[in-house]
Write a structure and sequence with these properties.
The protein is α+β, with helices and mostly antiparallel strands and 301 residues long. The protein has three domains: 88 residues, Rossmann fold, CATH 3.40.50.20; 120 residues, ATP-grasp fold, B domain (D-amino Acid Aminotransferase, Chain A, domain 1, 2-Layer Sandwich); 63 residues, 2-Layer Sandwich (Dna Ligase, domain 1). It has nine helices and 16 strands.
Length: 301
């Protein structure tokens, strides 16, 4: 098969592993920097220009689009979908997952477990927002934040009100969520591929930090998940329409609650913590499922 890996940095662990896994299985794989692509919008003849020539008709594309370039990256991916290239994750699904508010609304509609969440822009009545949550402590998030950046813990009622009002002063949208104290600064990340969880790990934040992101000094270890957690992870992926993703959950007193669905999950922490060849399983999935023109939206999203 002829595959394309859409990414900005070919030297990242995850991207090198995907290329390695594809080549080990006898496939040809090209790395394509989506920001260097030009989209030729021509009636009935969609094409993508890259490095001075039109991209070939790939059998499948593996999109690894960074959050900061979602708009342009999904536009390039949508063009490839219109050309009939099979996408591991479709452009529409990636856009859904990147919109924190929309993703939570879709998960709620499916009945997926979530922390109590309030979305707000006008923050002069911070007390009303906190009343809806049930009071402090709360987690306050910028919609655009990634890897734990733009996430603040409001431990007391007055402290939380001050943080909410401060965010309001910079004219931004925020999410305010209940703080799951019983999680103890730990979360569970599951890698979902197709309709099953292929790997899972427990992440724990560094001492004194409620955030469990490995990028912020957290640690990871293999974990056995419950049937309910497995069903929650798969249900969250289906709600987004993603074939391959990371689902981050907290273990609360009322069951697993989803914090985020990541359409470009990092492989390094998961593979090293579990010893599971996630990249290889991804290529195996493509071998079984890639088919010309096989998308739900065919680039219409």
């Amino acid at each position: 098969m002829k595959l394309a890996l859409m990414c900005r940095n070919a030297n990242l662990y995850s991207h090198k592993r995907i290329v390695e896994a594809a080549e080990e299985r006898g496939h040809e794989i090209d790395v394509v920097d989506h920001l260097r692509c030009y989209i030729n919008i021509t009636s009935l003849r969609p094409s993508v220009r890259y490095a001075g020539e039109d991209l070939p008709l790939f059998d499948a594309v593996i999109p690894r689009i960074g959050a900061s370039v979602t708009f342009y990256g999904t536009a390039v991916l949508r063009q490839l979908e219109m050309m009939g290239v099979y996408p591991v994750n479709e452009s529409v699904a990636i856009s859904r997952s990147r919109d924190k508010l929309r993703s939570l609304q879709l998960l709620a509609r499916r009945g997926i477990g979530l922390p109590v969440t309030v979305f707000a822009h006008r923050t002069s009545r911070a007390d009303e927002i906190l009343d809806l949550i049930g009071g402090a402590p709360v987690i306050i998030k910028l919609l655009e934040g990634t890897q734990g950046i733009g996430v603040v813990l409001g431990e007391t009622q007055k402290g939380a009100e001050s943080i909410i009002q401060a965010f309001g002063g910079v004219n931004t949208n925020i999410l305010v969520q209940e703080f799951i104290k019983e999680a103890g600064g730990e979360d569970v990340r599951c890698i979902v591929l197709g309709d099953k969880v292929v790997a899972s790990m427990k992440r724990k934040g560094k001492e004194g930090d409620f955030r469990s992101n490995i990028h912020r000094g957290g640690s990871a270890s293999r974990v056995k998940i419950t049937p309910q957690e497995r069903a929650t992870a798969v249900g969250a992926a289906k709600a987004m329409g993603l074939n391959f993703c990371g689902v981050d959950m907290l273990r609360s007193n009322h069951g697993p609650v989803v914090m985020e669905v990541n359409s470009s999950p990092g492989l390094e922490g998961m593979e090293k913590a579990t010893g599971i060849d996630v990249a290889g399983q991804l290529i195996d999935f493509i071998e079984k499922n890639a088919k010309f023109g096989k998308t739900k939206t065919k680039g219409r999203g």
